[in-house]
Amino acid sequence: MILAMYSIFVFIFIGYVAKILRLVGNKQSGILLGFLLNFALPAQIFNGTYHAEIDIAFLFMCCIALLCNICAAMILLLIGKLFHIHKDNIIVLCLMGMLGNTLYLGLPIIKGALGEDYANQVVVYDQFVTGIPFAFLAPIILSLGGKGTFSLRAVMIRLFKSPLFLSLICGFAFRLIPFEIPQDLFVPLQSLAQTATPVALFAIGVQLELKGILDWKLTSLLLTAKMILAPLIMFCFVYFVIGGFTNQWRMALLEVAMPPLVSGVVLAIKAKLNGRLALNSVAFGLLISFITIPAWLFCIENI
């Protein structure tokens, strides 16, 4: 896992340096994100969904992980109400506290910690626990920020226009075919999918902003809930209810412990909420994760 985290750091650092030296501008960054969202990630999701081992136990694990994230968000909501934190800040706290960087950061970390066998499951996990909830939350957050009204129809249209969701559906549909597709046909798709992680990490580095720490108390509160409290809830559930950690539950706990989702920053800014708080949570969450993720892995491997 150390090698995986080193690779993550290098890709993010290269992106950050490219931004500082102005080697990459908004135009190039937009092209990269377009390639990532419309080609590389859909290829990764389709390939992962088709090849992943998905059963009732896996779906149950995803539900528990999502509930742990929701619990952390509810605790942040309660604290916000008790201490009379501004509504815009509470929305950002709950949004960023619930959604984690389960794919861009989670995939290489899980590969390094648990091996290649769990990479496909990470892709499916990300869609169930992060991607689909984000698609439902985005219109709600925008409506709370005064950018329109929420409607279920708008959510469904947004969902079925998403290349990521459509690739998930196609992956499940192809699993229903009564014969196995030859692996050779997946080679170009897998090559395209392999570009997703480095491009995503590079894009994170380009978006990274380390100037100033505004709302450091709120940032600390958010990261404590997202990266310590949520995985602690899952740790207690697995230890006392399940009775111990399998590799699949280790994967779920590490994913729950990931820092906040990068896309949440874009949503917070678009909804005219506290974008600086969202950005700080991502930037400093990435840095802190190099300490907290190995610490969580040590805990679950030595109980």
TrEMBL record:
Gene3D superfamilies: 1.20.1530.20. Keywords: Cell membrane, Membrane, Transmembrane, Transmembrane helix, Transport. GO terms for cellular component: plasma membrane. It is a multi-pass membrane protein. It comes from Helicobacter aurati. The chain crosses the membrane at residues 6-24, 31-50, 56-78, 90-110, 122-144, 156-177, 220-242, 277-298. It comes from the Bacteria. The keyword Membrane applies. It is found in: Cell membrane. GO terms for biological process: transmembrane transport. This is AEC family transporter. Belongs to the auxin efflux carrier (TC 2.A.69) family.
